[in-house]
Amino acid sequence: MLSPSPSLRYHRRIIMPSNLPNLRRLFVDARSEAEESAYSRKAFYNLAIFISSVAVFSLMAQRMASAKTITS
Asked: Where are the domains of the chain?
């Protein structure tokens, strides 16, 4: 039995990632419209909370750094 040429092996690797969107579609189809909406809303709120906390910590760090330079 002949082994596939290197170009065919490389071609097979390119085809595999195209199956990933189909996997995502399976998970989406497994949920109802209401469940998908709730899942999306929760993900959005988690992202908004994360970005807000990063902004708050950044502002706190800036104020602490400026307070150190003023007192030094």
From this structure: 6-71
Question: Phi, psi at residue 39, to the nearest 5°?
Answer: -65, -45
Q: Which residue shows structure tokens 């908004």?
A: 48
- Cβ atoms of residues 57 and 50 within 8 Å: no
The span from the CA of 72 to the CA of 66, in Å, is 10
- The verdict on pTM exceeding 0.70 is no
User: In angstroms, what CA-CA distances link 10 with 2, 15, 16, 17, 20?
Assistant: 16, 9, 10, 12, 18
Q: Tens-of-pLDDT digits for all 72 residues of the chain?
A: 555 555 555 555 555 556 666 877 787 788 888 998 998 999 999 999 999 999 999 999 999 988 888 776
Rounded to whole angstroms, how far apart are CA atoms 42 and 50? 12
CB 51 within 8 A of CB 59: no
